[in-house]
Design goal:
By secondary structure, the protein is an all-alpha fold. It has one domain. It is globular, with a radius of gyration of 21 Å.
């Protein structure tokens, strides 16, 4: 490959293809069954669109040229992480309802009970933040880029942490629920701590990762500029997600408060 050129090929690894195919088939089979059981509300069109968006986010991160480009351009690797950590989990979970998840509800409840403290939202915060800091340690990041097995492990860690983190906010079948300001603290603490990684990368005085230094200039970006762009991408994405999530939490709290008030009025008048 000529100096300065990039490999923008597609990645057709069997693992991601099998996972994506399985997700698509299972969801496609559940939608008509859920609608037969609970009507259109059990699987509304907007939920289906969210799930499709999450599926496409996984496809983009793991199969599209983003995967190959991530091994050459730091900014593209960061985009891949953003898709795996936040975008795909949020959209896939937003695409679910109680009726859609009914076949696995009891199993999920048993798993939650067996997990004990590991099922706590604060364990999810520790995992989410811990993995982001751990995998951005230079030795770990370089190892992931140089060894396929480590790279797969990195992606499994980030995707798992992302799903667990967002499960506590978006799952329709969780037994434990947040109260008061807990979801706000949950969101703000996590996003500030992860956004700090992006700030460190953006303003680091020199490139931190030898692997990208060896790539030289790509797309007219020096390794230093590429690193700063990647860090800014992370910091901005975390801020945007936090803002949207906080707005959604506020609207949800108002809606729940109104429903509670309506219930009290019904009981008072009966």
């Amino acid at each position: 490959m000529p100096v300065g050129a990039v490999d923008a090929s597609w990645t057709f690894a069997p693992g991601p293809i099998v996972v994506l195919a399985l997700l698509a088939v299972l969801y496609a089979r559940r939608v008509p069954a859920a609608r037969r059981a609970g009507g259109a509300k059990a699987a509304p069109a907007w939920r289906i669109a969210c799930f499709a968006g999450g599926w496409l986010a996984l496809f983009a991160a793991l199969i599209s040229p983003i995967d190959a480009l991530g091994e050459q351009v730091f900014g593209m690797h960061m985009l891949q992480h953003v898709l795996l950590l936040d975008v795909a989990p949020v959209l896939l979970l937003a695409g679910t309802t109680k009726v859609l998840l009914r076949p696995v509800t009891r199993r999920m409840h048993r798993l939650e009970e067996a997990a004990g403290p590991l099922a706590s939202p604060w364990f999810a915060v520790a995992l989410y933040v811990g993995f982001m800091w751990l995998w951005h340690v230079p030795a770990m990041y370089d190892a992931a880029l140089e060894h396929d097995v480590v790279h797969v492990l990195e992606h499994v860690c980030m995707t798992s942490a992302g799903f667990l983190y967002w499960w506590h906010l978006l799952s329709p079948i969780r037994r434990r629920s947040f109260s008061g300001l807990q979801p706000v603290v949950y969101m703000v603490v996590t996003k500030v701590l992860v956004g700090a990684v992006g700030i460190v990368l953006t303003f680091a005085p020199e490139p931190l990762y030898d692997f990208y230094v060896r790539q030289g200039d790509v797309w007219g970006l020096s390794p230093q500029d590429d690193q700063s762009f990647a860090g800014a991408l992370m910091a901005v994405e975390q801020s945007i997600v936090m803002g949207i999530a906080l707005a959604w939490l506020f609207v949800r709290a108002l809606s729940e408060s109104e429903r509670e008030e309506e219930r009290r009025e019904r009981y008072a008048s009966s």
